């Protein structure tokens, strides 16, 4: 980062564009524009930083972001979900926005949403957010998890992590707060987030009953849903596929149930000897979400927490139920994506994608990794990104990032940055494998700059320009008289690219 500015009402830093690039708008849609080859070429990149990276923008975290979609009239003057509009043949302003930023035709976006292959999470009460699409035929997106806990972090720290996540390219953020001040923390995040915000409502519902699982009720959960819908949450993780008959399958595993939401509902069913209220009241949940155009992220409460447990009976039994619930939600015109594992060895990843498409009727898949080994503590952002790149290339629409502190501790801002960048690389690898034009253009631009020894352009095109510049310039300082036409690994006499040019 070249320079920091400080918001007038907070110590949370804002930021300017990466060095050598600038914020541009095309019909109101933001892009990051990079001049290459001394200005003879320009490339525009997908940009999620909202107005924060616009030098003219003066952030005020108490006031929040400008309400971009406030005057975007719903169809017929009433609340209609993006799915309902798409089914009616209507191209909404959100669809037009998505089409322009992804280089697609608006009608294509409408068809993908109507077919339930893509979602546009855009709560009517989060007008500060910029529309984006999650679907297998769009750019692969990544999510960053943030949120306070009972042991660490507060509102300011989580707001800082949200801004930091957006700065490095998170397409959505999930507020997974479980400690105190959940509502206040979420309010600050939503009002200042230019990307969609997701939550797991069962966490706050449990806090409302003093953390006592046995005291959880449908009414407490319903009231929490409505509260968060009104506040502006764009998508909810709902673990409605964890049924009573599946719990014994999971308890026989090496690592049992590792989803917090899944374990809470499993314990509730054991105590009350009843089916999950998330399942029995699912249609009521659909009606609540429909009223605000909030999307489902149907949660994988029985995802495997170890490669040993991957692709077992519990996991795939739940996946089948999620597919049935997706059809119920679609009947109510509610958008749906399906959450996936978890810990899965490389040889079992394809089966996850194949069965998700089969059981869930082509709904967007949103996966945590998958982590391909279990012994990478301290490096689980890498074990996750390996699996994420593979499952993304097979059609997963969004990847949930993992930080180096996964399984160990609550991440700080540097962990967040590391996790995002590694998963942005995984997403780009997936898009390149699928032949997405925007990914190919970016990749080819970097290759050409590398072959022509245009170091400044290489810095501008990478995900962390400051780091790339620091690495090269630090090595040059130790090698006096080093040529600009080589790196210090090969040197001037053994550079294959320079020798090829001489040929």
Question: How would you summarize the topology of this molecule?
Answer:
Elements: E1 4-6, E2 13-15, E3 22-26, E4 29-36, E5 41-46, H1 82-87, H2 93-102, H3 106-114, E6 118-119, E7 134-135, E8 141-146, H4 155-168, E9 172-175, H5 182-191, E10 197-199, H6 201-208, H7 218-231, E11 235-238, H8 247-251, H9 260-272, H10 277-280, H11 282-292, E12 295-298, H12 313-331, E13 336-340, H13 349-359, E14 365-368, H14 380-393, E15 398-400, H15 413-434, H16 437-451, H17 455-461, H18 465-477, H19 496-502
Parallel strand pairs: 8-9, 8-15, 9-10, 10-11, 11-12, 12-13, 13-14, 14-15
Antiparallel strand pairs: 1-2, 3-4, 4-5, 6-7
Helix pairs in contact: 2-3, 4-5, 4-15, 6-7, 7-11, 14-15, 15-16, 16-17, 17-18
The helix count comes to 19
End-to-end CA span = 39 Å
| Poorly predicted ranges | 1-13
Structural class based on helices, strands and sheet pairing: alpha/beta
Question: In angstroms, what is the radius of gyration?
Answer: 23 Å
Tell me the strand percentage band. Answer: 5-15%
The percentage helix is 40-55%
The biggest beta sheet reads: 8 strands, parallel, barrel
Q: What is the averaged pLDDT score?
A: 92
Q: Which geometry do the CA atoms define?
A: globular
Strand order across the biggest sheet? Answer: 8-9-10-11-12-13-14-15
β-strand number: 15
């Amino acid at each position: 980062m070249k320079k920091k500015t400080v918001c007038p009402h907070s110590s949370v830093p804002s930021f300017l564009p990466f060095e050598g690039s600038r914020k541009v708008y095309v019909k109101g849609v933001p892009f990051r524009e990079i001049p290459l080859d001394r200005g003879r070429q320009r490339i525009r990149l997908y940009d999620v930083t909202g107005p924060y990276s616009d030098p003219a923008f003066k952030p005020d975290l108490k006031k929040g972001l400008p309400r971009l979609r406030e005057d975007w009239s719903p169809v017929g003057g009433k609340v209609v979900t993006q799915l309902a509009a798409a089914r009616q043949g209507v191209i909404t302003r959100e669809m037009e926005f998505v089409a322009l930023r992804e280089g697609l035709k608006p009608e294509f976006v409408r068809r993908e949403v109507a077919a339930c292959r893509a979602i546009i999470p855009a709560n009517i009460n989060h007008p500060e957010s910029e529309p984006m699409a999650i679907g297998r035929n769009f750019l692969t997106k990544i999510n960053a998890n943030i949120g306070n806990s009972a042991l660490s972090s507060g509102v300011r720290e989580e707001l800082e992590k949200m801004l930091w996540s957006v700065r490095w390219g998170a397409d959505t953020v999930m507020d997974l707060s479980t400690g105190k001040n959940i509502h206040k923390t979420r309010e600050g995040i939503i009002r200042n987030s230019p990307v969609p915000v997701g939550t797991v409502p069962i966490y706050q519902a449990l806090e409302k009953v003093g953390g006592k699982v046995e005291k959880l009720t449908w009414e407490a959960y319903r009231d929490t849903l409505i509260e968060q819908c009104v506040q502006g949450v764009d998508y909810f993780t709902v673990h409605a596929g964890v049924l009573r008959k599946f719990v014994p399958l999971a308890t026989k595993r090496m690592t049992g149930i590792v989803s917090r939401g899944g374990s809470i509902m499993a314990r509730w069913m054991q105590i009350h000897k009843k089916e999950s209220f998330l399942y029995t009241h699912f249609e009521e949940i659909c009606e609540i979400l429909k009223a605000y155009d909030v999307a489902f992220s149907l949660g994988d409460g029985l995802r495997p927490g170890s490669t040993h447990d991957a692709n077992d009976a519990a996991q795939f039994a739940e996946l089948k139920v999620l597919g049935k619930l997706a059809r119920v939600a679609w009947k109510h015109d509610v958008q749906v994506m399906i959450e996936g594992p978890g810990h899965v060895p490389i040889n079992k990843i394809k089966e996850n994608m194949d069965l998700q498409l089969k059981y869930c009727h082509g709904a967007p898949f949103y996966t945590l990794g998958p982590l391909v080994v279990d012994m990478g503590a301290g490096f689980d952002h890498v074990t996750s990104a390996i699996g994420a790149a593979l499952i993304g290339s097979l059609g997963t629409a969004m990847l949930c990032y993992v930080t180096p502190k996964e399984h160990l501790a609550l991440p700080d801002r540097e962990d967040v940055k590391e996790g995002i960048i590694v998963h942005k690389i995984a997403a780009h690898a997936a898009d390149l494998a699928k032949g997405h034009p925007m990914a190919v253009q970016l990749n080819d631009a970097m290759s050409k700059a590398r072959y022509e020894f245009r170091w400044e352009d290489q810095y501008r095109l990478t995900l962390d320009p400051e780091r790339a510049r620091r690495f090269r310039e630090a090595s040059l300082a130790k090698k006096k008289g080093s040529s600009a036409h080589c790196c210090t690994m090969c040197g001037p006499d053994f550079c294959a690219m320079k020798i090829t040019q001489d040929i």
